Amino acid sequence: GKVPAGSILASAPSNKNLDAWRESGCRTTHCNLEVLQESTLVFLATKPHVLPGVLQEIRPAVGPHHIIVSVAAGVTLQTLQRLLPAGTKVLRLMPNLPCVVQAGAMVFARGSGAGDGEAALLKNLLSSCGLCEEVPESYINIHTGLSGSGVAYVYLFAEALAEGAVKMGMPGSLASRIAAQTLLGAAKMMLESGEHPAKLRGDVCTPGGTTIHALHQLEKGALRATVMNAVEAATNRACDMAKD
Which positions are annotated as binding NADP(+) (predicted)? Predict the structure, then answer.
């Protein structure tokens, strides 16, 4: 809601990719250069292997007034700056899927040509989509392993929670709703309290109670080590993709 739909111009090769933009009231085109001519803030949301060709196409139209934001995974600021005119204001953004329900987790890094004003503008605009933090570029691949891929880890855990309840006799649809609300509530408490998760976990446990018995089983299954390994594996894969 921070930008009127009519002020947004989206470009894509096919009409299929533009239908959702039109339905939202945005203007559309098949000409990337038209976007540069009419817009100051330009988001590049292409597949990584497509981006170099797009940058080559738009390079002649990029001026000092433009702010270029890349959402392409694995394409570094160094590469972006090399393929655009010297001094271009470039930022690299990595969102995650829950941005579509305005509960995303996003990080961005700025190139050498982008200043505090450009960073503040991007953060302000994206705050309506969830949490948005500026980080060193080296954190972006870690963010991919933690949050980009991490959404899937949470879905797997939610599925397991619900299936445990189904095993004990609760209907599946009810179990899934309660599992989702449990995750939502726990996350909200982490964000709003600012407490370390270990402290909040300890607050739930009572001596000899249900929670500590359950946590013992999770520890025997090496849940924490397995999740840490998952974040490491996804981060390493993101690093490898950036080298390809």
Answer: 45-48
How far does the chain reach from its first CA to its final CA, in angstroms? 38
Sign of the CA dihedral with 12 first, then 13, 14, and 15 last? positive
pTM: predicted TM-score of the whole model, two decimal places = 0.90
3-state secondary structure of 126: helix
Q: What is the mean pLDDT of residues 220-232?
A: 97
pLDDT digits (tens, 9 = 90+) for 127-167: 999 999 999 999 999 999 999 999 999 999 999 999 999 99
Q: Which residues lie below 8 Å from residue 87, measured CB to CB, with a gap of 6+?
A: 64, 113
Annotated binding-site positions for NADP(+): 45-48
Indicate the pLDDT class of residue 1, thresholds 50, 70 and 90. Answer: confident
Burial class (CB in 10 A: 0-12, 13-18, 19+), 147: buried
Q: Does domain 5-136 have CATH number 3.40.80.10?
A: no
Burial class of residue 160, CB neighbours in 10 A (0-12, 13-18, 19+)? exposed
Q: Sign of torsion, CA 180 185 188 189?
A: negative
DSSP 8-class letter at 7:
G
Around Cβ 157, how many Cβ atoms within 10 Å? Answer: 14
CATH topology of domain 149-242: ProC C-terminal domain-like fold (1.10.3730)
In the chain, which residues fall in CATH 3.40.50.720? 5-136
How wide is the angle at C-alpha 24 spanned by C-alphas 92 and 2, nearest 5°? 55
